[in-house]
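anyone seen this seq b4? input:
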Amino acid sequence: MWIDTHCHLDAPEFDADRDAVVARARAAGVAQLVLPAVERSNFDTVRRLAHAHGLVYALGIHPLYTGRAADEDLDHLQQALQVHRHDPRLVAVGEIGLDHFVPGLDRARQQVFYRAQLKLARDAGLPVLLHVRQSADALLAGLRRVPVAGGIAHAFNGSPQQAGQFVAMEFRLGFGGAMSFERALQIRRLAAEVPAQALVLETDAPDIPPQWLYRTAAQRAAGPPAQGRNEPAELPRIAQTLAALRGWTAQHTAQVTRANALAALPRLGAAGAAGAAAAPATLPGGG
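predicted toks r here
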């Protein structure tokens, strides 16, 4: 049984076949998906999707959306966390963090939202889902000022030293489709070498497609809308890469990453991660 710890099921790319996407994931053995919000306008959307499909969700304001977010959106997040505090399907505050890659973003405003949301997570006793893009040191500095109940550093691509610091703070590191590219040497090295208890799997669907789905910008423009789209059913094949890098079997890979996801997001268990309907964990070609 696999757990996709980061999937944007509410994205418009899934509007035409969202139910089928979930069905394919379950048929592939992906028993649980974590659906993070990215701004105030989709708080209710991810919550409704989670309840409709037996999934789990997180509430937060993504750093890429802080430029258009209003200051009072933080108050709305606080209220939402309070109203839904007893909802077992609410498992984290996220997706929050810092992005130092995309040009033109207001880093000071990102910091305001990041630190405020860390405080909300701390007060709610919830872990966080962190967006880490050339911002690991700044994120770690924030966590030292405002400690939280761990969580997941999503799509991690920092240094081994930074990885160690996140792990020391009870964070797990998310690995997904980027790991499948042979030229992604840093990510593959991290996936192979970080402590086993630090590893969780994710797709970030519909984004970060694995190597076998990748299309150039020209190919995407010329093809149908779904061409090259990532989806959670790809997780077992993504896991094959991790298994090969670690020298693990499919069963062991599933057991380790599932246990780590449950440790990072304790409410996952209460939401039914252990009993969700799914096929046995397998990798393409066996193993």
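DSSP finds eleven helices and eight strands in the chain. The beta strands are 2-4, 30-36, 56-59, 90-99, 128-133, 151-154, 171-175, 199-201. kinda curious what u guys think
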